[in-house]
């Protein structure tokens, strides 16, 4: 009877989630189609209609649906919020606010996952787990805990039904996207986004990959005292549970707290940029989500900042030569070397529908024009990357490499941290020896 109730419960949940996704998709589609039908009937050119209001209403509805349903839809909104090359600004600005700060699951649910994965009572692994999580996200939540031997740890635990929810949501979303693509080629195509999400979520749901990524980055910085990667305890980690050292620190963009703690602020952002330069330009493997919640800071004995990197779910391997391509693009924009710009875009994997590479120059010029000085100085600001992606949407670019989007987003996040502290995040300047 218990199995039957569980099966029927999942069946009802699948039907409900599929219906909600279908309803939202149909509403979004009709908001685009009905005005176009009226324009055609009244003899007006649909292409001349201002779509910003419709984009905003649709983005608001997608956001509301995602927040209420959680799971994969929150992740989808977060990804859309990074893809200014594919989606209008109204989508990017609204859905990028779909953060992982969500209502937590109860502690009994979390204890159940731990006991199932370890095949042991929770008390055999942890002497204490705080019932209130320190963070709750779309796939998992984090609790402070104490191991049997007294070590203070943070435990990241995946929700027990998240795999089923993601499969349900992806299936429903792909079905909607396929119908949408079949009957209407515009204005938005979600299928490439869903293909990308399917690849990434499969990896993100296996926490063992996140453990491997953390250990790999720890090895890269083993001789650098300015970088801390919390120690992970593999004997207390599984596919759905990560147990790591509990680390205290100051949020990377909390200027008042940093100064009160005696952190030396001169050259602060240059030090942080060197860390990401090394990962992106030299090592070819980087932490792709440097938002303020993922970086903590403590002063060393001399007041120099020591940066603790957290959450390696979005660590990314870059293709061979990608770092050199990014460096060449930055340097060529700074020197206005257009032939080097073209070469850099080719090396990074950009493609155009027409084969006309002058499109790349249009994109680069738009980026340069948004610099305060009128020339590129080595900082990918949020305004610059937004303008770049506006130019990409307006021009016949058929392929923008995902790696390029992730790298420029990371640099833009670092730029935002810098500006909140009254500093700059200049990647070229940070290449000088420390």
3D structure, described in words:
The chain has 434 residues and is an alpha+beta fold. It has 2 domains: 2-99 and 163-204, no CATH class; 248-434, no CATH class. The chain is built from 15 helices and 13 strands. Strands 1, 2, 3, 4 and 6 form a 5-stranded antiparallel sheet that branches. A hairpin with a 5-residue loop joins strand 9 and strand 10 (305-309). Helix 11 runs antiparallel to helix 12 (338-348). The longest helix is centred in the first third of the chain and has 40 residues, at 2-41.
Task: Write a compact overview of the structure shown.
By secondary structure, the chain is an alpha+beta fold. It is about 50% helix and about 10% strand. Strands 1, 2, 3, 4 and 6 form a five-stranded antiparallel β-sheet that branches.
Straight-line distance between termini:
66 Å
Radius of gyration: 23 Å
- Strand and helix order: HHHHHEEEEHHHEEEHHEEEEHHEHHEH
Mean pLDDT: 85
Instruction: Based on Cα principal axes, name the global outline.
Output: globular
Which runs of at least 5 residues are low in confidence (pLDDT < 50)? none
Helix- and strand-based class? alpha+beta
What's the topology here?
Blueprint: H1 2-41, H2 52-69, H3 72-80, H4 89-95, H5 107-118, E1 126-129, E2 135-136, E3 140-147, E4 152-158, H6 162-183, H7 191-204, H8 207-220, E5 227-228, E6 241-245, E7 250-251, H9 255-260, H10 268-283, E8 285-287, E9 295-299, E10 305-309, E11 315-317, H11 322-335, H12 338-348, E12 351-352, H13 358-369, H14 382-394, E13 397-399, H15 402-420
Parallel strand pairs: 5-10
Antiparallel strand pairs: 1-3, 2-3, 3-4, 4-6, 7-9, 8-11, 9-10, 12-13
Helix pairs in contact: 1-2, 1-6, 2-3, 2-4, 6-7, 10-11, 10-15, 11-12, 12-13, 13-14
């Amino acid at each position: 009877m218990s199995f039957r109730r569980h099966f029927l419960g999942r069946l009802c949940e699948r039907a409900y989630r599929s219906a909600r996704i279908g309803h939202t998709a149909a509403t979004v589609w009709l908001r685009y189609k009905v005005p176009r039908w009226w324009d055609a009937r009244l003899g007006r050119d649909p292409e001349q209609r201002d779509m910003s209001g419709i984009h905003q209403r649709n983005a608001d509805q997608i956001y509301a649906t995602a927040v209420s349903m959680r799971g994969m839809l929150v992740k989808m909104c977060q990804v859309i919020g990074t893809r200014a090359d594919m989606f209008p600004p109204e989508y990017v600005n609204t859905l990028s606010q779909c953060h992982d700060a969500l209502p937590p699951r109860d502690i009994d649910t979390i204890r159940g996952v731990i006991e199932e994965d370890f095949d042991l009572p929770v008390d055999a692994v942890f002497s204490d787990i705080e019932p209130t999580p320190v963070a709750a996200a779309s796939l998992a939540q984090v609790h402070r805990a104490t191991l049997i031997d007294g070590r203070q740890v943070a435990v990241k635990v995946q929700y027990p039904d998240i795999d089923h929810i993601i499969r349900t949501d992806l299936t429903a979303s792909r079905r909607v996207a396929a119908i949408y693509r079949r009957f209407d080629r515009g204005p938005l195509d979600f299928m490439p986004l869903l293909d990308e999400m399917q690849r990434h979520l499969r990896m993100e749901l296996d926490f063992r990959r996140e453990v491997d990524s953390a250990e790999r980055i720890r090895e890269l910085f083993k001789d650098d005292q300015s970088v801390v990667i919390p120690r992970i305890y593999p004997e207390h980690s599984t596919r759905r549970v990560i147990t790591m050292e509990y680390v205290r620190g100051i949020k990377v963009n909390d200027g008042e707290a940093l100064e009160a703690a005696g952190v030396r602020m001169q050259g602060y952002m240059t030090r942080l940029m060197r860390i990401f330069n090394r990962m992106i330009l030299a090592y070819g493997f980087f932490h792709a989500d440097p938002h303020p919640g993922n970086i903590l800071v403590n002063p060393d004995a001399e007041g120099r900042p020591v940066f603790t990197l957290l959450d390696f779910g979005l660590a990314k391997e870059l293709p061979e030569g990608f770092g050199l391509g990014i460096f060449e693009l930055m340097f060529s924009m700074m020197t206005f070397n257009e032939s080097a710009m073209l070469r850099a875009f080719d090396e990074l994997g950009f493609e155009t529908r027409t084969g006309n590479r002058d499109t790349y120059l249009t994109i680069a010029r738009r980026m340069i024009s948004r610099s305060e000085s009128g020339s590129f100085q080595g900082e990918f600001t949020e305004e610059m990357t937004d303008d770049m992606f506006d130019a990409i949407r307006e021009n016949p670019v058929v392929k923008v490499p995902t790696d390029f989007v992730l790298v420029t987003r990371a640099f833009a996040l670092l730029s935002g941290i810098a500006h909140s502290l009254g500093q700059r995040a200049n990647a070229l300047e940070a290449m000088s020896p420390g």
